[in-house]
Amino acid sequence: MKLIQQWKEFRQFQNEERSMTLEDILLRAGISTETVTKEQALNIPAVSAAVGLISDTVASLPIILYKEESGKVTEVKDDRVSLLNDDTKDSLDGFQFKKALVEDYLLDGAGYAYINRERNKIKSLHYVSYNNVSVNINADPIFKNYDILVNGTTYSDYEFIKLTRKTKDGVTGKGVIQENNKMLSVAYNSLVFEDILVRTGGNKKGFITSENKLDAEAITALKEAWKNLYKNNSENVVVLNKGLSFQEASNTSVEMELNSNKKTNSIEVCKMFKVPPSLFEGTATDEVHESFIKICINPILKAIETAVNKDLLLPSEKGSFYFAVDTNEILKGNILKRYQAYSEAVKAGWISKNEIRYREDYEAIEGLDIVTMSLGEVIYDTNSKKYFTPNMDSVTNSGMTKQALKGGGNIEN
To answer: Where does the source fall among the domains of life (predicted)?
Structure first.
């Protein structure tokens, strides 16, 4: 009768185990399911990989200063460009500087950099960790104003570059961790649960049944032996005396689907960062790469451009000068597509071969500063309202009728 009662209790517990959720299993194992921190989130492989891919891609692209004047755009050589791309005059170089800003932007919702000015000249740029920054915002919902505090020192708005994600005030934002904390908590705690299984040597839970009643000393000795078994050390054998037997508990649904859950969690994390999972599997097509650049990278580049234009340009420069990210570096990973794009640009006549050589870091060749055009095309000047036909060496007014054009009337040679 005693054995029958023990068997009924075992079956009841077994059914309860099968119906338990992942959170129940984690709580029973003593794992917290509270808010996930930045450090914990980066322990999730999918998060670390996505943040690394995005930040490396963005940080590798140079930022260029342009000037627009009378409809003509020219590149400007300026110390601010060198600070952004090469040497920030701080402990971080240009690549590390942009990478750190993007990491804080993605995970915390905002990246900050102090602008060290001497009058109108910028001497250096200093990345400041998100954890060291606090913001004091006024209560006016219309005329918003704020101060930035670092280690108790107050700074004004214009003294910082502020790269913000999903912001409502221009200085604070919402990162992926805050936005998807529950999902990240599941992924992180699943990782911790798997770690516990590994550290216990993969030994399964079970029950010990005894034909006779055990005294306190025997129970203590048995518990200690079992504890050593699950420590994953050299003590990997437990000796059961006569009358004792071990009944192994079956796999719970959570344990059986742990690997499947990991794959699902990784896909969900990739969705958070708008990164196609195939990029990490080596199966991504050119279309997938293009979609990644368009959907994930381009919005971040636009956020960087607007941030540096707002804070690094003088009031007198705004309107004619602007910073822009050179996205040509992205195409350098695909030489065939890059050369095809150059070929189409040359055929269209809007770029010269020397301009292409400059983009590819080659020296200019005399005589290649020309653009080609077809003699069979008619060129229309929107300013003078006249047509020019190259193969006829003629200029005609836009107001002429088709009959006049056919007859050759009112043609300027």
So the answer is: Bacteria
Distance CA 329, CA 280 (A): 21
**Looking at residue 352, what is its pLDDT?**
83
Give the model confidence (pLDDT) of 226-251 as tens digits.
Answer: 666 655 555 555 555 555 666 665 55
| Both structure tokens of 20 | 């338990």
Return the exposure string of 130-158: e unless at least 16 CB atoms fall within 10 Å of the residue's CB, then b. Answer: beebeeeeeeeeeeeebebebeeeebeee
Give residue-wise pLDDT tens across range 155-173. 999 999 999 999 999 999 9
75/86 Cα distance (integer angstroms): 17
Q: Give strand pairing partners of 163.
A: 111
Closest to 47 (Cα-Cα) out of 148, 158, 153, 191: 191
What's the CA angle centered on 341, arms 337 and 305, to 5 degrees? 95
Indicate whether 378 pLDDT > 80. Answer: no
